[in-house]
Amino acid sequence: MREVKAVQIPYQSNEEVLGILGAFRNTVNYCIHVDLQKNITSRFRLSNEVYNRLTEFGLHSWYCLSAIEVAAAILKNYRRAKRRNKDKSINLPYARRLVTKLGNQTYKVIGDKLRIPIKPRQYFYVKLHKRALEFLSDATLKLGSITLTARRISMVFSKTTKVMEPKHMTFDVNEKSIVGARVEDDEIKASIFYLSRIYEVRHGYFERIRRVQAKYAKDRRVAKKIQNKWFDNQKNKVNSILHKVSSEIVKEAKAKEQGIILESLTHIRRAINQKIPGINKYNGKRELISRYSKRHKRRLNSWSFKKLQSFIEYKARWEGIRVIYANAKNTKFCSICGYTIEPKEQNCSRCGIDRHVNACLNLLRTQDESLRFRLDRSAYVAMSSPLGYEQKRSQVSKTYHMLIRYK
Question: What confidence score (pLDDT) does residue 369 get?
């Protein structure tokens, strides 16, 4: 299976580079205009139609070919959306952002610098950081295209991986932690990674931004400038924590040669932001009001569960580890005694298993129906040693507290 990964390289642009980005955008929009005007559906025909005209934009010939390719991709998505939404009006496509795409024949790596052409025999150089050089030194990776913006360059690397078909380990994503569990040598092995630092970061920046809004209420230009800077800092810190946690999870799965099962979490924010008929306490009118408080919605809407799952997925696929999304339905039932764990209960009131570890075991059973964690299970399946009820309860509690902690 072919997997792709991009490495971000920040750099300082100048007026010449910004001019190229603007000319590239105009070139793409010109190709789109000609295509729609003459109803061209082939990239080859579009290239024959506009290539000679594109040379007048003053760009390198490689930029012209890339512009045709980008325009063809935009038009393909436009026609696909038009077919899917026949009864709805679709806006005409055009390129908005300052961005350029170049194939691997265009640029060249010289030492620790990336050479990108501006005009024939004219180049500008970008210094590569340590991570990019590590990827370049790996002989198993194939260098692909680059995407150039006003602030960073994305270098694409690809490789062919062999997907393993192993046993699985499951992870239950929660607000302030992610709990994993697997069956190994007839025992439940659990691990937990804490995410509470994310909430500390978000709460700290929220309070700082609120003070700035109050201080510069009459000067929104200054307030917006400060807020944008702090929002970027907050995003970088949160992403750093998520990258570290997802890397640890993938390393653990690779060391144990096990696949990863994640919950298929959908429509969470739709449920959080749901409105119900009620009485507005300010004007006394009957109207739709929020079901949950403002603080509750702000906390759950900032929950980065999908981003964490996407980080785990692409890192796992890069290492050849299979990732499966399982339905999280019926994970509230205890996998050992069958008792229903109430939402406010942290542990099962009958056998003592943690609710998050129990959710992992139920997810694990969705991929292997032969697993049985009940006391009356068969002798040839997981956890097959005959234990009494009290012994089972003590073993589950002991196993759960032998955790791999991440802070």
Answer: 60
**pLDDT averaged over the chain?**
82
On whether the CB atoms of residues 104 and 144 are closer than 8 A, the answer is yes
Token look-up 């793409």 returns: 28
Q: How many residues does the chain have?
A: 407
Better-scored residue on pLDDT, 20 or 368: 20
How many CB atoms are closer than 10 A to CB 242?
20
Mean pLDDT of 52-68: 82
**Closest CA relative to residue 366, chosen from 326, 406, 337, 314:** 326
Query: pLDDT at position 393, please?
Result: 39
User: For residue range 130-168, what is the model confidence (pLDDT) as tens digits?
Assistant: 999 999 998 888 988 899 999 999 999 998 887 766 677
Residue among 3, 18, 9, 4 at smallest CA distance from 109: 9
At 166 the pLDDT is 60
Q: Which two tokens stand for residue 96?
A: 């908005």
Sign of the CA dihedral running 81, 86, 88, 93: positive
3-state secondary structure the chain: CEEEEEEEEECCCCHHHHHHHHHHHHHHHHHHHHHHHHCCCCHHHHHHHHHHHHHHHCCCHHHHHHHHHHHHHHHHHHHHHHHHCCCCCCCCCCCCCCEEEECCCCCEEECCEEEEEEECCEEEEEECCHHHHHHHHCCCCEEEEEEEECCEEEEEEEEECCCCCCCEEEEEECCCEEEEEEEECCEEEEEEEECHHHHHHHHHHHHHHHHHHHHCCCCHHHHHHHHHHHHHHHHHHHHHHHHHHHHHHHHHHHHHCCEEEEECCCCHHHHHCCEEEEECCCCCCEEEEECCCHHHHHHHHCCCHHHHHHHHHHHHHHCCCCEEEECCCCCCECCCCCCECCCCCCECCCCCCEHHHHHHHHHHHHHCCCCCCCCCCCCCCCCCCCCCHHHHHHHHHHHHHCCCCCC
Give residue 38's identity as a one-letter amino acid code: K
pTM: 0.76
pLDDT band at 74 (very low <50, low <70, confident <90, very high): very high
Quickly state the pLDDT bin for 229 (edges 50, 70, 90): very high
Cβ 367 vs Cβ 261: under 8 Å: yes
Q: Maximum Cα–Cα distance for the chain, whole Å? A: 83
Q: Is the pLDDT of residue 282 over 60?
A: yes
Cα gap 169→191, rounded to integer Å? 10
